């Protein structure tokens, strides 16, 4: 019962934090990257920051996998859902940081907040799937799982492809920022964020859990605020920026 209350508290905390982020103005929800304020003096190199802050969401699920007291991981649906979570964070903590080309150093405070979130969410998702979640043996043939898995895979591919476009905007020796083109950037400013949001809503659908939904909701709240900030920044800094581009969701928002 104590474990269940802790997981429920983390769910409520994520939802409350998401609602708080929706209420903040977009500049206060954009404290790193090109939107970081110059007064932030304590900074962490971009590669180090991304690797360290995302690592808890990889390490904690791996610990659950190695633990002998993870009864639900004997069931295939639980293992596959946890693997979906792990695949993202393998890419995010072990691959993505080392592909960054001279990224902007991250202010220390948002880096610490990210570590705290990844620790709590890594624990929430891995503990739920390894100890609490009960699925039928044929859950992987359920339309909710199949549709969710498809959305998860599509979102992850959009996210990775969009990050690739952003990394290659500058050729060696180039300085300054450029307008992203290609892929979903033809339709929205924050194609990479759109991909990650689709990915986690797919995971939430596939897991059919309040824990997954809370994570997807928080992701949307956080990334939509950053997407608004980037959209405003591009419009202010590039007169030729395509006015028909939406902020985050093609043809809608």
From TrEMBL:
The keyword Transmembrane applies. Residues 105-253 form the 3-oxo-5-alpha-steroid 4-dehydrogenase C-terminal domain. GO terms for molecular function: 3-oxo-5-alpha-steroid 4-dehydrogenase (NADP+) activity. Keywords: Differentiation, Endoplasmic reticulum, Lipid metabolism, Membrane, Microsome, NADP, Oxidoreductase, Sexual differentiation, Transmembrane, Transmembrane helix. Its EC number is 1.3.1.22. Pfam families: Steroid_dh. Signal peptide: none annotated. Its main location: endoplasmic reticulum. InterPro entries: 3-oxo-5-alpha-steroid_4-DH, 3-oxo-5_a-steroid_4-DH_C, SRD5A/TECR. One of its GO terms (biological process) is androgen biosynthetic process. It is found in: Endoplasmic reticulum membrane; Microsome membrane. It comes from the Eukaryota. It is a multi-pass membrane protein. It catalyses: 5alpha-pregnane-3,20-dione + NADP(+) = progesterone + NADPH + H(+); a 3-oxo-5alpha-steroid + NADP(+) = a 3-oxo-Delta(4)-steroid + NADPH + H(+); androst-4-ene-3,17-dione + NADPH + H(+) = 5alpha-androstan-3,17-dione + NADP(+); 17beta-hydroxy-5alpha-androstan-3-one + NADP(+) = testosterone + NADPH + H(+). The chain crosses the membrane at residues 6-24, 106-124, 145-162, 200-223. GO terms for cellular component: endoplasmic reticulum membrane. Belongs to the steroid 5-alpha reductase family. Converts testosterone into 5-alpha-dihydrotestosterone and progesterone or corticosterone into their corresponding 5-alpha-3-oxosteroids. It plays a central role in sexual differentiation and androgen physiology. This is 3-oxo-5-alpha-steroid 4-dehydrogenase. The gene is SRD5A1.
């Amino acid at each position: 019962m104590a474990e269940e209350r802790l997981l429920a508290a983390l769910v409520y905390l994520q939802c409350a934090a998401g609602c708080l982020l929706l209420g903040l103005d977009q500049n206060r929800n954009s404290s790193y990257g090109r939107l970081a304020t110059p007064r932030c003096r304590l900074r962490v190199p971009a590669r180090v920051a991304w690797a360290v802050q995302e690592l808890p969401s990889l390490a904690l699920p791996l610990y659950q996998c190695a633990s002998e007291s993870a009864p639900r991981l004997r069931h295939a649906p639980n293992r596959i859902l946890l693997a979906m979570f792990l695949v993202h964070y393998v890419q995010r903590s072990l691959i993505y940081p080392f592909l960054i080309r001279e990224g902007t150093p991250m202010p220390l405070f948002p880096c610490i907040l990210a570590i705290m979130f990844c620790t709590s969410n890594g624990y929430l998702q891995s503990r739920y799937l390894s100890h609490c979640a009960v699925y039928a043996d044929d859950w992987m043939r359920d339309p909710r799982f199949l549709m969710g898995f498809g959305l998860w895979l599509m979102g992850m591919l959009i996210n990775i492809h969009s990050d690739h476009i952003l990394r290659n905007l500058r050729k060696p020796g180039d300085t300054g920022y450029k307008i992203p083109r290609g892929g979903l950037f033809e339709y929205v400013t924050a194609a990479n964020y759109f991909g990650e949001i689709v990915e986690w809503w797919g995971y939430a659908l596939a897991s059919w859990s309040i824990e997954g939904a809370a994570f997807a909701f928080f992701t949307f709240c956080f990334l939509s605020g950053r997407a608004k900030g980037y959209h405003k920044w591009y419009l202010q800094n590039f007169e030729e920026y395509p006015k028909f581009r939406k902020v985050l969701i093609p043809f809608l928002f």
